[in-house]
Amino acid sequence: MPTRSTLRCRFPATAAPGLAPTKASLLASLLASLLASLLASILASVLTCAAGPAAAEERSDKTTEAKPPVTLDGKGITLRFDDGSKFRIGGRLQGDFGTGRVQQRGFGTVFEEPAAIRRAWIETYYSLKDFEFAFQYDVNEPRVPVSDAIVAYKGFRDVIITQGNFKEPFSLDQLISDNVSQFTERSQADAFVPARNFGAAIGTHGANWTAVTGVFGGNINTGLQNNGIASTTRLTYTPWLSENKNDVLHFGLAGSYRSLDDDARSLSLSSRSEAFLFARPLVNTRTIRDATAIGRVGVEAAWQQGPFRLQGEYILTDIERRDGRPPLLFQGGYIQASVVLNDKGRPYRVVPTYGSEYGVFTGVTVEERQRVSRGGTGLFELGVRYSAIDLESHEVRGGVEDDFTAGVNWYPEPNIRFVFDYIRSHAEPSAESLNFGRRTVDADVFIGRAQLYW
C-alpha cells in the first residue's frame, strides 16, 4: 500500500463500558439528520415538478438562469433543489504500485504486496442555507473507515463553526487534501500531526489572515474517550496574496496540547519510508507507557510565484511523563519545491467550505485545451522534497531517519492523476524494533499511483 508517515497512539483494544453505543448513536444521529434533510428536499423537488408548467412559469428569472437541477462533472453528481439546497455525491479511488530494496540483510519483506488500493472513498455533501453536512467513508479501511463526519454552521459573517469528526487545525501538509497532495504520501513530520478526531472548532478570517481553534477528543472510529482531550489552534498570515490567488507568501503557526487519562493507556510514535506499500517502520519509539500529555508546536511557510512553489514545516513534540520523569522531546520537518511545467501553479484557498482547512493550497486546474481527450498532453508537475524525523530522547531510542523524494505528477484529465515517486531513505533505527543494533538502514523505493476522483 502507499507510503505513509503515521502517528500511532496505541490503546487497549477494549473500550470503556458503554462507549461503543455512544459512538454508534452519534454516527447514526449524524447520518439520520443528513438523510432526513435530503429526503425532504427531494420530496419538495418532486412535488414542484408535479405542479406542471404553471409552477415553472412562476419562477423568477434568477431561478431560470440557475444551473441544471442535476449535473455530472469533476465534482461528482450534484442535485440542486428549489429551496437553494444542494446535495453532492463524490469519491476518490487511489491505487498504488511499486517496488523497493533495502540493502541490509535480515530486514525481511520490503513491500507486503506490489500493488494495493490506497483509498476508496465515498463522499456525500449537503448544503442547506447556513448549514453544511459532510460524510466521507473509506470502504478500503476496516479500522478507521469514517473520515469526515460533520455538521457546520456558517450563519455568522466570516465565521464557520464545525462539529464532528474532522482534522484538527495543525500542519499545512496535513490540511492539504490527499486528493491533491504533491507526493503519494506526506512527509516524515506527519508522524507528529494529530489529524482527524471528534470535536468542535470555530474559525474566522480576514483578507490575508485566518484563525481557527477547537477542542477534540478521540477518533470516532476508535472511541471518542480513548485519547484524552486536546486543544488545538492554528493561525495563518499572507503578507502577499495576488487577486488570482496564484502568487502568495504564507506563514503559519499551530499549537496543540492533549492531556491523557491516568490509566493504562499508552502511545507510540513511528514512521516508515514515505510509501504506504513499505512493510514496516524504520524508526519507532515503541510503547511509551508513562505519558500524561502531548504538546506540539508547528511552524510553516510557503512561497508561490506563478508555477513555482517552495514550502516547508518544522514540528516539535513534547511528551510529558508521570512520576517526575523528564519530558521527551522529538522533532521533524521537511522542505519541498515544485513546479507546474505547462501552466500556472496551485491556487491558494483562504476559506474552506467547513472545518479547519483554512489557508491551504488546492489542486492544479487542467484546462479544456490541455485534456488528452481534446488532443492535448495533459498537465505535468515536478517536485522534490527532503524530510527528517528524530525519535531519540533520553532513554527512548526510536531512531533518526531522513528521506529524499523526487516525483512527477501527470494530469491527463481534470479528475485523473498519475503520480510517480522515488524515495531514498536513510535511517539509524531502533535496536528493539529492527534488531540491527545501531547500524544504519538504507532503502530505495519506487512508488506509483493511479488516481480517479470525482
Descriptive notes:
- The protein has 454 residues and is mainly beta.
- Helices cover 11% and strands 51% of the residues.
- It is built from 5 helices and 23 strands.
- The chain has helices spanning 19-50, 53-57, 61-64, 172-175, 431-434, and strands at residues 3-8, 70-73, 76-80, 86-102, 115-128, 131-138, 146-153, 159-167, 196-205, 209-216, 229-241, 248-259, 268-276, 283-284, 291-305, 308-321, 328-340, 348-349, 360-361, 379-393, 396-413, 416-429, 441-453.
- The strands form 3 sheets. A 16-stranded antiparallel barrel has the order 4-5-6-7-8-9-10-11-12-15-16-17-20-21-22-23.
- β20 (379-393) and β21 form a beta hairpin.
- 40% of the residues are buried.
Fraction of residues in helices? 10-25%
Main β sheet profile: 16 strands, antiparallel, barrel
Number of DSSP strands? Answer: 23
Give the overall shape, derived from the CA principal axes: globular
Strand order of the largest sheet: 4-5-6-7-8-9-10-11-12-15-16-17-20-21-22-23
The helix/strand order is EHHHEEEEEEEHEEEEEEEEEEEEEEHE
**Mean pLDDT across every amino acid position:** 85
> What ranges have pLDDT less than 50 throughout 5 or more consecutive residues?
1-64
Determine the N-to-C terminus distance.
Answer: 22 Å
In what range is the share of β-strand residues? over 45%
SS summary, helix count? 5
Structural class: mainly beta
Output the radius of gyration: 23 Å
Notable characteristics:
3-stranded antiparallel sheet; 23 strands; disordered N terminus; about 450 residues; mainly beta; about 50% strand; 16-stranded antiparallel β-barrel
